[in-house]
Specification:
By secondary structure, the chain is α+β, with helices and mostly antiparallel strands. The protein has two domains: 76 residues, Ubiquitin-like (UB roll), CATH 3.10.20; 75 residues, [2Fe-2S]-binding domain (DNA polymerase, domain 1, Orthogonal Bundle), CATH 1.10.150.120. The chain is built from six helices and five strands, in the order E-E-H-E-E-H-E-H-H-H-H. Strands 2-1-5-3-4 form a five-stranded mixed β-sheet, with helices on both faces. A hairpin with a 2-residue loop joins strand 1 and strand 2. Helix 3 crosses helix 6. The longest helix is centred in the last third of the chain and has 21 residues.
């Protein structure tokens, strides 16, 4: 199968990538752009380890064909921090002990970012519903939920200070 050229805007940088049309966004991110934060857990879109944001929406990059990502804005965990400063979600995950082995963490954080972009003050139930497609074998989710609640608080404080 011949390769085609795709224009990907990843973490605010534009890349021209040559890949086969049946390549997944995950494989292109990892193998062509060396962005390895998104993990291949299941390859079927069930575990959430490969979650990235596409135009602000959480998507499972292991089942998104690269041709569907062509021209869209992609955010990976590598693009979340602001220089050397952790994003409030990253900070909250660290401070709340929501990171165990770390395999699910990038997908969990990006899923939480999509939620908080839509709903800056979610309830515990809304958080649990939002992350229900992200599997974690280490934490039992309590600290993850706590971290997302804390991050929501940090983001609200940031917004208030910017006004």
């Amino acid at each position: 199968m011949e390769t085609e050229t795709y224009r990907l805007v990843v973490n605010n940088r534009t890349y021209l990538v040559h890949a086969k049309p049946n390549a997944t966004l995950l494989s292109v991110l990892r193998d062509h752009l060396d962005l390895t934060g998104a993990k291949c857990g299941c390859g079927t879109g069930d575990c959430g380890a490969c979650t990235v944001l596409m135009d602000g929406e959480a998507v499972r990059s292991c089942i998104v064909p690269v041709k569907k990502a062509d021209g869209h804005a992609i955010l990976t965990i590598e693009g979340l921090a602001r220089g050397n400063k952790l994003h409030p979600l990253q900070r909250a995950f660290v401070e709340c002990g929501a990171i165990q082995c770390g395999f699910c963490t990038p997908g969990m954080i990006l899923t939480a970012k999509a939620l908080l972009n839509q709903n800056p003050n979610p309830t515990e139930e809304e958080i649990r519903t939002a992350i229900s497609g992200n599997l974690c074998r280490c934490t039992g989710y309590a600290r993850i939920v706590e971290a997302i609640q804390y991050a929501a608080e940090l983001l609200r404080e940031e917004a208030e200070n910017d006004d």
